[in-house]
Write a structure and sequence with these properties.
By secondary structure, the protein is of the alpha/beta class. It has eleven helices and 15 strands. Strands 3-2-1-4-5-7-12 form a seven-stranded parallel β-sheet, sandwiched between helices. A two-stranded parallel ribbon has the order 6-15. α1 links the parallel β1 and β2. It starts with 10 loop residues before the first strand and ends in a 9-residue tail after the last helix. Bound molecules: 1,4-dihydronicotinamide adenine dinucleotide and the ligand CC(C)CCC[C@@H](C)[C@H]1CC[C@H]2C3=C(CC[C@]12C)[C@@]1(C)CCC(=O)C[C@@H]1CC3. The site of 1,4-dihydronicotinamide adenine dinucleotide has 28 residues, from α1 and α3. The site of ligand LHIR3OJJ has 14 residues, from α5 and α9. It is an enzyme of class 1 (oxidoreductase). It is found in: Endoplasmic reticulum membrane; Lipid droplet. It is a single-pass membrane protein.
Length: 345
Amino acid sequence: MTTRIRPSSKRCAVIGGSGFLGRHLVENLLERGYTVTVFDIQRRYELPGVVFHEGDLCNKQALLAVLQDVPLVFHCASPAPASDDRGLFQRVNVDGTRTVIRVCQEVGVQKLVLTSSASVVFEGTDIKNGKEDLPYAKKPIDYYTETKIQQEKLVLEACDKDKGFLTVAIRPHGIFGPRDPQLVPILVDTARRGKMKFIIGDGSNLVDFTYVENVVHGHILAAEHLRPGSALCGKAYHITNDEPVRFWDFMSQVLVGLGYDAPRLHLPYLLVYGIALLLWLLAALLRPLVRFKPTFTPMRVALAGTHHYYSCTRAKQDMGYQPLVSLKDAITRTVDSYPHLRKGA
Ligand SMILES: NC(=O)C1=CN([C@@H]2O[C@H](COP(=O)(O)OP(=O)(O)OC[C@H]3O[C@@H](n4cnc5c(N)ncnc54)[C@H](O)[C@@H]3O)[C@@H](O)[C@H]2O)C=CC1
Ligand SMILES: CC(C)CCC[C@@H](C)[C@H]1CC[C@H]2C3=C(CC[C@]12C)[C@@]1(C)CCC(=O)C[C@@H]1CC3
């Protein structure tokens, strides 16, 4: 059993705290006795004990005002991967993260915990039990991933024990749970449009889907174990449910739980990937004239048809991480949290 390390001060800021993961993180931090400040471009909720600041993390002055006297900062802001907007990803994930680091250093923040992504090593081909020492993707599957790589490098390289500025990156994968705006809503929308009939590939590919509370737990453990002498400084950590599951079994369980049919017919992976690539190119070419967003993007097809699961052994060893909620319970809780997405609702 690992001893729980109490931070000297329980004040923290969550950049991106209005988002799906951010809000779960804020709620959990409050339960654990932290005082929380949220910085986000939008305010989506009110919570007693939380101070909100609406602002863009690219705005140095706005950040300077908010991060004064804050010893611990969680940075979990990012544009949504589906936006596929190269300029926006560069501005927020790379330039904005540089600003976050500079401000943290200027005002004397002691710890910065970044939400990175396990996808920083994913190139669209199989990853089985991937460890953190896998090289960054040389050909990232999209702009989002490209900028998440640069963001992670910036944060980890900024770690400086001598100056008392400690950084760590958490790499979750396939986060799901109540209020997730991506996975379940996109899945249900695809099913409602009658497009969820096919399994891409043979359906045996194993993937990590990670319950949001486990991801939050990993973030807080990392913050609490990040100390000048600890192994965590300047390192990345996979946080998963530690229960790789067949991609299509997971999708089917969610769909059936919500009253929809599970996909049954198989389509060859390369065929679907080729079509998705063509549609993506067409959408990019026609963008000045018409805007259409294909459901099956090359990125989604790659994620749906390959193995991509990761080892969280390093997190277990260095911070005593263990998932708190099993995949079975997590799916039940998630399905129950979306009554409005049930078939016929
Ligand atoms: N959802 C997933 O499956 C995974 C997510 N991640 C990472 O987790 C983090 C959180 O993701 P989610 O909660 O799913 O996304 P989300 O879209 O729900 O939350 C992101 C938040 O960042 C805020 N934000 C965006 N641009 C901003 C800016 N310029 N200034 C201030 N705030 C800004 C948004 O308003 C939003 O509230 C992101 O860094 C994402 O890359 C990593 C792996 C998997
Ligand atoms: C239409 C169907 C074939 C697929 C529907 C589900 C997908 C929307 C999701 C399945 C895997 C998810 C995933 C992410 C977003 C939502 C999915 C594509 C991420 C790209 C989110 C950001 C990350 O950092 C990595 C995630 C990997 C898994």
